[in-house]
Design goal:
Elements: H1 2-20, E1 30-33, E2 40-43, E3 74-86, E4 96-103, E5 113-122, E6 128-131, E7 134-135, E8 145-146, E9 154-162, E10 166-174, E11 183-192, E12 209-220, H2 227-230, E13 240-245, E14 254-260, E15 300-308, E16 324-329, H3 343-353, H4 362-366, H5 371-375, E17 389-400, E18 405-415, H6 419-430, H7 436-443, H8 445-462, E19 476-481, E20 486-491, E21 500-509, E22 517-522, E23 528-531, E24 540-548, E25 600-604, E26 607-613, E27 620-623, E28 633-636
Helix pairs in contact: 6-7
């Protein structure tokens, strides 16, 4: 009893503190899932809130295809859990008609969600990639446990207690198999443990929870690359078009999805697909050289429900879940300043969670003709709101007696047309070779690709996650620039897979996120290759994949037959490799012509950035950009001539 009294006072203190700020204790540990073409981060608090890992970066995560820069689609997510007739001896404000605990879309979850476990498990150790001896990577990965028997490449285990006494365990996992690597699965198990805080004591051992809803909120915006090309507001999803599929639709899956819709303030050209015709003045998220018209916002993103328990005693899938499929204004009062002690506001929040199916869908409210309107848009997706809309799914109502649990399994996915098709289509549109309708028809092929991804995720789940696997990637990949070649070598894991038939090496010139070509096919016993064709002064990037035999591909999970390859994201180089100048080979000489006022500019081969400064005839220093030669600076002790 004394413990309950003490905890009541603590709760009162926390109430005053957390009511003060949405951002209190906002920084929680996070981990990236990044073994496939879709990359996303996940937070130990249980959901990924707005600006959750980096302030002033609203679009962060859900990157596809992640090899390219600025492909972020995720703005904010939220997880709310609510119930009816809640009472707790450690909560001084109970009883409640409805009680809701929150993490996201803006509140941090502090004081309502309590992280207990957060670790990364991998089927094998993270491969290491080195360029000239330096570790090369895009996102750092810390593996907490290696389990060779794991059914998936990587899994994050995240356990969180909540103020309702429901403990959430979510298992987040991703496959690297090339036909299943653009979705990430989250398996949620919500158990009535009675633990309402951060310690091991069970405060509510005998409480049955009624009217329980699990509510997920998704604010997506396709994508950061075009935010300042089309308009800043597109970066928070003001033009996002949201649609729904249920068991009653021809596709026969349950999903919410979205795309980059019309943005009326932008009038230079039709913005569906995000054509990039010009370079934004501030240069954020775009490049000066990338103005050929390439489509930069061609992605379709969404979440598909693969399983939701009928009840705590019936673990079969309920096709009527989620029972709430809705869209809500992203800047509505319910999306900020959420407070598990605000009884009035929680009534409104619970109304969102339990409202059922909101019809028509957002997309059909904006464009009632459906696909015809989607590819020839005329209306404003914001519907006059300042922030656009977010998708929402609510699962429930459930009753949870002590020890009861509910499992919900979803997959976040992104797909679309290929980068190559996005480029050629955009160029054709900019040149006037096709019109907006023809461009948009190509863009909407990406919706079919997303639906195919949903079906593959469902088929994988229904197979018991038994899809065929490629060989393991190389364990170590070394790239070293030498004087006359770039040397590549690799090592394999002790048991890379019985289906290993060899390796393929791909190379790009200039940037790591540019076009790659196959330059070499290696035998299964080969461990090195010399690339003798690089040009001095240019940057080179590589990746190597292991190639399996076609006979090991069973086709399970709607996997197309044929050879399977390991993921490039395990063995991609992000640091440039260049030819180094051999020792003793010094081609530099200088004869300076002109008056005595510097600086002098020398145009030399690769570029015109070589500059010399003269200080009254003293030592001359020539500075050479790192991207033009292996030597950064040369000091010439004596001026050869000065005319």
């Amino acid at each position: 009893q004394n413990t309950s009294i003490i905890k009541s006072y603590i709760f009162l203190l926390l109430l005053g503190f957390f009511a003060y700020s949405d951002t209190a204790f906002s920084q929680y540990a996070y981990k990236w899932m990044s073994v496939g073409s879709l990359h996303n981060y996940f937070s130990e608090i249980g959901s990924e809130i707005e600006e959750g890992i980096q302030k002033n970066k609203q679009q962060n995560g859900l990157q596809w295809p992640a090899i390219y820069a600025n492909q972020d689609i995720q703005c904010a997510k939220a997880l709310w859990i609510g119930c009816t007739n809640f009472s707790s001896p450690v909560d001084p404000q109970s009883p409640y008609n409805v009680k809701v605990v929150h993490v996201g879309p803006r509140v941090s979850g502090a004081g309502e969600f309590f992280p207990q476990e957060f670790r990364m498990i991998s089927k094998f150790a993270a491969p290491e990639v080195f360029v000239d001896g330096d570790l090369s990577y895009d996102k750092s990965v810390e593996i907490d446990e290696v389990d060779p028997n794991l059914f998936v490449d990587r899994m994050i285990v995240n356990k969180v207690n909540t103020q309702l006494g429901i403990t959430m365990t979510r298992k987040i996992f991703q496959f690297s198999q090339e036909y299943h690597e653009n979705y990430i699965v989250s398996e949620y198990t919500f158990k009535n443990t009675g633990n309402v805080d951060n310690d091991d004591e069970i405060e509510l051992p005998n409480t049955t929870l009624t009217g329980v809803y699990f509510y997920f909120h998704y604010r997506f915006a396709v994508c950061a690359n075009t935010r300042f090309v089309i308009g800043n507001a597109t970066g928070w999803g003001i033009n996002s078009m949201l649609d729904v599929r249920t068991k009653n639709d021809p596709e026969n899956f349950r999903a919410q999805y979205m795309w980059h819709g019309k943005y009326p303030p932008f009038t230079l050209y039709d913005n569906i697909g995000g054509p990039i015709w010009s370079y934004p003045g501030d240069g954020r998220y775009a490049e000066k050289s990338d103005t050929v018209g390439r489509l930069g916002a061609y992605q379709f993103a969404g979440v598909v429900t693969m399983h939701a328990d009928v009840s705590s005693s019936d673990k079969s899938d309920d096709p009527n879940q989620p029972s709430t499929t809705s869209y809500e204004g992203s800047d509505e009062p319910n999306t900020s300043n959420n407070d598990s002690y605000n009884k009035v506001k929680m009534e409104s929040e619970y109304g969102w969670m339990s409202k059922g199916r909101k019809l028509p869908t957002h997309a059909l409210k904006v464009e009632p003709t459906g696909l015809l309107g989607f590819i020839q848009p005329a209306a404003d997706p914001s519907l006059g709101t300042p922030g656009g809309f977010s998708n929402a799914d609510g699962y429930g109502p459930y009753t949870l007696a002590p020890g009861d649990s509910i499992t919900i399994i979803v997959a976040e996915a992104v797909s679309g047309i290929s980068r190559e098709l996005a480029t050629t289509t955009g160029i054709q549109y900019k040149k006037g070779q096709i019109n907006a309708l023809e461009k948009n028809t190509v863009v909407f092929q990406g919706r079919d690709s997303l639906f195919q991804t949903f079906r593959r995720a469902i088929a994988n789940y229904q197979s018991g996650y038994n899809i065929p696997q490629p060989p393991l990637p190389p364990k170590i990949f070394n790239v070293n620039g030498l004087g006359d070649r770039i040397s590549l070598s690799w090592e394999t894991f002790d048991n890379p897979g019985s289906s290993l038939e060899g390796f393929e090496i791909y190379r790009a010139v200039g940037k790591y996120d540019s076009n790659y070509t196959l330059i070499h096919t290696a035998a299964p016993n080969d461990r090195s290759y010399d690339d003798a064709n690089p040009i001095r002064g240019l940057n080179y990037f590589y990746y190597i994949v292991s190639v399996g035999g076609a006979s090991s591909n069973t086709g399970v999970g709607l996997t197309p037959l044929g050879k399977l390859k390991s993921s490039r994201y395990y063995t991609q180089t992000y640091n440039p490799a260049v030819l180094k100048r051999p020792a003793g080979d010094s081609p530099y000489a200088a004869k300076l012509k002109g008056n005595k006022a510097g600086p002098f500019t020398i145009k030399a081969g690769v570029n015109d950035k070589l500059k010399i400064d003269i200080d009254n005839g003293g030592p001359v220093v020539i500075t050479i950009p790192a991207d033009s030669a292996a030597v950064d600076t040369i000091e010439i002790k004596d001026v050869v001539a000065q005319i």
